């Protein structure tokens, strides 16, 4: 599959305004040359690599000022919504590209797709991550820059890398609110958050970046801001003011940074989402 996607990706990158030409080297990597004399090597990985291989490529390229971009086959990445301890190589790729990794896939008869995946800290020890899939990447940019990687230690160093220049989707407020609502819906349905499931932002293609499907239906594609706010609170429309206040107090005891057992950054984010949902409900009802 990598060969088919390589041809497709070569055509996509060649359309970027800053790119002068794109060729295929004997090792199978795409070599993009920019109009400012920069060079980027793009590697499509069909299997999970050893971190020592990633480091060797980074060392060789960085030494001569070449940026590196790795894309991993989607089947090598845990499913959207899963909680897992990712392989060291996946953590390394995630660290290289500003808290995301890039994947590629192609369904039968479908067009190739480039996905972006974020690992969010899930526990205080830091060994577990919740897997978040973002929207498919539109190949329009190819910025090259240096990044310092401190973890995993096997990939520690100051490296020259490139990415597709897309925004940090996991920091988008609407995305995070919708994601929190989806998590609560899963808990309410009784799966405990352990089943591999897929959530996608309304307006994005269902199935996330890679189109994984699950026995559970995704949330409504056109759910409104207010509906999502009620979902975050674990309530349905029509809940009384007292029910909303009670739900807010109960959930605040779970996620407030001063009392929560969650990692501080996780607790701050969840409390911000909860407070935003609470305020939207109050404004909508004139309380």
Distance between the termini: 56 Å
Query: What percent of the residues sit in helical stretches (DSSP H or I)?
Result: 25-40%
CATH architecture of the largest domain: 3-Layer(aba) Sandwich
Gyration radius (Cα, Å) is 21 Å
- Reported by name, the CATH topology of the largest domain is Trna Endonuclease, Chain: A, domain 1
Q: Spans with pLDDT under 50 lasting ≥5 residues?
A: 192-223
Q: What does the average pLDDT come to? A: 82
Q: How much of the residues is beta strand, in percent?
A: 15-25%
CATH class of the largest domain: Alpha Beta
Number of structural units classed as domains: 2
Quick take:
This protein has helices spanning 2-14, 51-63, 88-96, 173-189, 225-232, 241-255, 264-285, and strands at 19-24, 30-34, 39-45, 67-73, 83-84, 101-105, 113-121, 129-133, 144-149, 157-162.
Describe the structure.
It is a single chain. By secondary structure, the chain is α+β, with helices and mostly antiparallel strands. It has two domains: 2-169, Trna Endonuclease, Chain: A, domain 1 (3-Layer(aba) Sandwich), CATH 3.40.1350; 172-285, DnaJ domain (Helix Hairpins, Orthogonal Bundle), CATH 1.10.287.110. The protein is 34% helix and 20% strand. It has seven helices and ten strands. It has helices spanning 2-14, 51-63, 88-96, 173-189, 225-232, 241-255, 264-285, and strands at residues 19-24, 30-34, 39-45, 67-73, 83-84, 101-105, 113-121, 129-133, 144-149, 157-162. It has an eight-stranded mixed sheet, with helices on both faces. Strands 9-10 form a two-stranded antiparallel sheet.
């Amino acid at each position: 599959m990598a060969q088919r996607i390589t041809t497709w990706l070569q055509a996509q990158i060649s359309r970027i305004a800053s790119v002068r030409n794109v060729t295929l080297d004997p090792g199978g990597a795409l070599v993009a040359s920019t109009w400012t004399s920069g060079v980027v090597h793009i590697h499509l990985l069909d299997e999970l690599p050893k971190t020592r291989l990633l480091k060797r490529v980074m060392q060789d390229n960085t030494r001569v000022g070449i940026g590196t971009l790795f894309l991993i086959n989607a089947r090598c990445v845990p499913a959207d919504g899963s909680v897992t301890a990712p392989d060291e190589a996946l953590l390394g790729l995630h660290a290289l590209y500003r808290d995301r990794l890039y994947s590629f896939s192609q369904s039968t008869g479908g067009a190739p797709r480039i996905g972006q995946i974020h690992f969010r800290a899930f526990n205080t020890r830091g060994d577990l991550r919740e897997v978040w899939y973002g929207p498919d990447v539109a190949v329009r940019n190819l910025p090259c820059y240096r990044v310092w990687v401190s973890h995993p230690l096997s990939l520690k160093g100051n490296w020259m890398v490139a990415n597709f220049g897309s925004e940090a989707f996991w920091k988008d407020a609407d995305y995070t609110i919708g994601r929190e609502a989806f998590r609560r819906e899963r808990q309410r349905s009784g799966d405990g958050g352990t089943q591999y499931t897929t959530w996608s932002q309304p307006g994005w293609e269902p199935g996330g970046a890679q189109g994984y499907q699950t026995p559970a239906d995704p949330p409504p594609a056109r759910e409104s801001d207010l509906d999502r706010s009620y979902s975050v609170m674990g309530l349905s429309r029509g809940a009384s003011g007292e029910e909303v206040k009670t739900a807010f107090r109960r959930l605040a005891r779970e996620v407030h940074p001063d009392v929560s057992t969650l990692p501080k950054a996780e607790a701050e984010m969840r409390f911000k989402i909860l407070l935003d949902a609470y305020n939207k409900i109050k404004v909508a009802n004139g309380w």
